[in-house]
Amino acid sequence: KAGVTQTPRYLIKTRGQQVTLSCSPISGHRSVSWYQQTPGQGLQFLFEYFSETQRNKGNFPGRFSGRQFSNSRSEMNVSTLELGDSALYLCASLNHGQVGETQYFGPGTRLLVL
Amino acid sequence: GENVEQHPSTLSVQEGDSAVIKCTYSDSASNYFPWYKQELGKGPQLIIDIRSNVGEKKDQRIAVTLNKTAKHFSLHITETQPEDSAVYFCAASTSGTYKYIFGTGTRLKVLA
After folding, report:
1. CB-CB: which of B46, B95, B105 is closest to A103?
2. d(CA A91, CA A5)
């Protein structure tokens, strides 16, 4: 099976712009989670989707949003970018998102905001 | 709020020695504790996990222990090898929340 793919891998934006990141989970997996990874904060949970429904979200401002499509692919959007949004954005794929299932991470999208 | 503390932040050991990384969680309802290894340029990869109804689990050179009363869990790597050098993350999750709370990571260096 192909792994989790994320596009693009690298992105440079300027403050005030918006960005959309994409994640394709492992075939057959219906749960996709997004995390922000920074050196100071580690991995912080953004949101989780299952069958196009958001089941949980983390403590991020409303500028961070996401969605999931019927084929389980997911996108996250960050509007009005700030310097502090520079980070590695990781998505993770699970079968149903139940506790105990193995969570498979993609390689991430590295976003730099100038 | 929910929190997972992880120590140490960096750890250097000689090849062949053991390494121990410790985590403490705050949510007593947490019932699943995975450990991840992240190598440069890659996403985290699951290396071992433990559920709250088990006290210890071992997989070759890697073991995890859980103390529910103290809300501590630890990763033990024996006979360390240079390829064990990476950043290790602990995490905690609770049934029905569909999210994982991660520790801040430990950078392990195995010196040849």
Report:
1. B46
2. 9
CA distance B101 to B112: 33
The string of pLDDT tens digits covering residues A90-113 is 999 998 888 888 899 999 999 999
Which tokens sit at A35?
């995390």
Token pair listed for A100: 């105990």
CB A23 within 8 Å of CB A104:
no
Residue A74, token pair as written in the block: 């997911």
Inter-residue contact A28 to A18 (CB < 8 Å): no
Identify how many contiguous H helices and E strands chain A contains and give both numbers. 0, 11
Per DSSP, B82 falls in state G
Cβ–Cβ under 8 Å, residues A50 and A96: yes
> Strand runs (DSSP E) across chain B, as ranges?
4-7, 10-14, 19-25, 32-38, 45-51, 56-59, 62-67, 72-77, 86-93, 100-102, 106-111
Nearest CA distance, B52 vs chain A (angstrom): 11
- Sheet holding B56-59: strands in order across? B4-7, B19-25, B72-77, B62-67, B56-59
Contact A48 B102 (CB under 8 A): no
Instruction: Give the tens place of pLDDT for each residue, B3-43.
Output: 999 999 999 999 999 999 999 999 999 999 999 999 998 99
**Subunit contact B98:A4, Cβ cutoff 8 A:** no
Q: What pLDDT does A93 receive?
A: 95
